[in-house]
Amino acid sequence: MSGGGIEAPVGCEAAPSGGGGRKTPAGSAHLVIKDLGEIHSRLLDHRPVIQGETRYFVKEFEEKRGLREMRVLENLKNMIHETNEHTLPKCRETMQDYLNQVLQRLQAANDSVCRLQQREQERKKIHNDHLIASEKQHILQWEDFMKEQPNKRAEVDEEHRKAMERLKEQYAEMEKDLAKFSTF
């Protein structure tokens, strides 16, 4: 029952020994205590079994984890290889094709914008030249107008003076005529 040691007799049986007599009660008690310790450790002390199971579980977990990580790494490697060998060249070709088309369209749009800008600048220049010419013409007209003002004022003053003289003469005649009639 002890599994590796000497089996002790059960009950009051005496074990045959070389001394030819019975074992002392202290010796058999010692064997019983030893057997009880072994029974107790097998039935109640599960530390060695749990430690073994724990080591086995950790070993299996690490192996499975390592295998899972290896599969993940292998999948990543395959994906990177697929990307480098197939996807990137296709993307590069497609990008080059589209970029060339986009570049041509951008160049055409840029040329159109440059032409429109040039036309707009020419139109603005013509408009500004016209405004400057018109402004100069208005300034000349104003200067001519201002030069003519003293002459016209003199003419108006002369006409006014003449009209005043005519009115004075007319009123003088009317006073004479009125003086003729008042003597009646």
Q: What descriptive keywords fit this protein?
A:
disordered N terminus, rod-shaped, mainly alpha, 2 helices, 184 residues
What this model shows, in words?
By secondary structure, this protein is mainly alpha-helical. Helices cover 84% and strands 0% of the residues. It contains two helices and no strands. It has helices at 25-43, 47-182. The termini are far apart. The relative contact order is 0.03.
Topology (SSEs and partners):
Blueprint: H1 25-43, H2 47-182
Question: Could you write a compact summary of the structure shown?
Answer:
With 184 residues, the protein is mainly α.
Instruction: Calculate Rg over CA atoms.
Output: 67 Å
Average pLDDT taken over every residue: 82
The separation of the N and C termini measures: 188 Å
Shape, principal axes of CA atoms: rod-shaped
Tell me roughly what share of residues is in helical segments. Answer: over 70%
Number of contiguous helices: 2
The oligomerization state is single chain
Q: What is the N-to-C succession of helices and strands?
A: HH
Q: Low-confidence stretches at least 5 residues in length (pLDDT < 50)?
A: 1-21
Strand content: under 5%
Which structural class should the secondary elements be placed in? Answer: mainly alpha
